């Protein structure tokens, strides 16, 4: 009999029913005290040489049902190498199937990035002589809020990258791993030039509780961290509260908040044009950054993205808007797809962890030119 398991780090699924030992009916669990649901991650066992069809029920009630259109599930036999499986969104269900070549397989909304891998990332980076690792405080569940500072603390420019305010957007931490790897490469000329004038402050995972719990968007209190920046508190959003303290202490000259988008199959940057202090110099900086990013990698584009805010109408509870308004610097949100980059599609893997890491390294080129 097929057995379904999600009792591991970031796991999320409810086994509803199995029909004729061929169709496995599943439901995604909501984030704690929240209506958000879309992240799933589970393992199917005892299926060698069988073809199973999986039905995720009530997919129309997920946070972003439009995200199921043209979506491909991530699948892996060993939890390391992932490939894509086509899906159908029909009758309010997400449907996909697999002919099993091994007895078990993992399925996920995107390639998972576990809390254990996160801890290894910050520990290994913190051992590098260029890097300082600091624990800013604790989450509601008692996990570390990690900050990596790479470069000279007395440098003129303080560059901030944060990721995974929404824990189900795992591509964001894959991006951060690629960024960190390049920043610590002594043979990279872009890195060496940048670190002469910049100190990078990196929060690879803003929401470790949500990561471990298998949430899509919220922390252990059921709070969406990217709607807390104008009211952060130790009670409800310590993750934002402690990062804001560090920002005030160190200063911010450039800020990028790394996310994933369920619907749009592109990489793009959203600016903070709606904040009250947005002006022509900031608009010129934003345009130049995007133009330079397009030159650095064909994976980035600026044709498709979010509608722009009207002047003075930005939501200051959002991280990039709050930072831009508070520090008067270029402040943007980077979005990557859960699906694939439609401009450079990969039929086998789609938008993958490897491509996220490469994009993380590539963004250093426009950062370098921004401060020239």
UniProtKB/TrEMBL annotation:
GO terms for biological process: proteolysis. One of its GO terms (molecular function) is metallocarboxypeptidase activity. It holds the Pfam family Peptidase_M14. It comes from Pleionea mediterranea. Its cofactor is Zn(2+). PANTHER family: CYTOSOLIC CARBOXYPEPTIDASE, CYTOSOLIC CARBOXYPEPTIDASE 1. It comes from the Bacteria. InterPro entries: Cytosolic_carboxypeptidase, Pepdidase_M14_N, Peptidase_M14. The lineage of its organism: Bacteria, Pseudomonadati, Pseudomonadota, Gammaproteobacteria, Oceanospirillales. Residues 111-367 form the Peptidase M14 domain. Gene3D superfamilies: 2.60.40.3120, Zn peptidases. The active site is at residue 335. Belongs to the peptidase M14 family. This is Murein tripeptide amidase MpaA.
């Amino acid at each position: 009999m097929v057995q379904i398991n999600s009792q591991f780090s970031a796991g999320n699924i409810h086994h509803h029913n199995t029909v004729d030992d061929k169709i496995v009916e599943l439901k995604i669990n909501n984030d704690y005290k929240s209506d958000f649901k879309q992240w799933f991650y589970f393992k199917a066992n005892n299926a060698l040489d069988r073809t199973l069809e999986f039905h995720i029920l009530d997919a129309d009630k997920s946070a972003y049902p439009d995200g199921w259109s043209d979506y491909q599930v991530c699948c892996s036999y060993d939890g390391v190498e992932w490939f894509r499986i086509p899906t159908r969104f029909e009758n309010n269900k997400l449907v996909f199937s697999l002919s099993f070549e091994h007895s078990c397989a993992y399925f996920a909304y995107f390639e998972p990035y576990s809390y254990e891998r996160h801890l290894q990332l910050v520990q290994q980076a913190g051992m590098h002589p260029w890097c300082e690792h600091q624990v800013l405080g604790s989450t509601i569940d008692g996990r570390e809020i990690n900050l990596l500072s790479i470069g000279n603390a007395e440098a003129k420019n303080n560059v901030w990258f944060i990721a995974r305010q929404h824990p189900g957007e795992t591509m964001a931490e894959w991006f951060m791993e690629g960024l960190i790897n390049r920043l610590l490469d002594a043979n990279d000329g872009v890195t060496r030039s940048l670190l002469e004038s910049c100190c990078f402050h990196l929060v690879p995972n803003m929401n470790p509780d949500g990561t471990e719990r298998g949430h899509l968007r919220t922390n252990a209190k059921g709070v969406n961290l990217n709607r807390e920046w104008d009211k952060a508190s130790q009670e409800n959003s310590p993750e934002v509260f402690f990062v804001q303290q560090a920002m005030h202490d160190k200063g911010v000259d450039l800020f990028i908040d790394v996310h994933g988008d369920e619907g749009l199959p592109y990489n793009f940057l959203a600016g903070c044009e709606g904040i009250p202090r947005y002006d022509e110099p900031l608009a010129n900086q934003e345009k130049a950054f995007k133009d330079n990013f397009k030159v650095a990698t064909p994976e980035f584009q600026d044709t498709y993205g979010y509608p722009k805010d009207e002047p003075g109408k930005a939501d200051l509870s959002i991280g990039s808007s709050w930072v831009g308004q508070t520090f008067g610097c270029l402040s943007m949100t980077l979005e990557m797809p859960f699906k694939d980059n439609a401009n450079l599609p990969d039929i086998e893997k789609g938008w993958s962890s490897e491509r996220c890491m490469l994009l993380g390294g590539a963004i250093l080129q426009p950062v370098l030119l921004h401060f020239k």
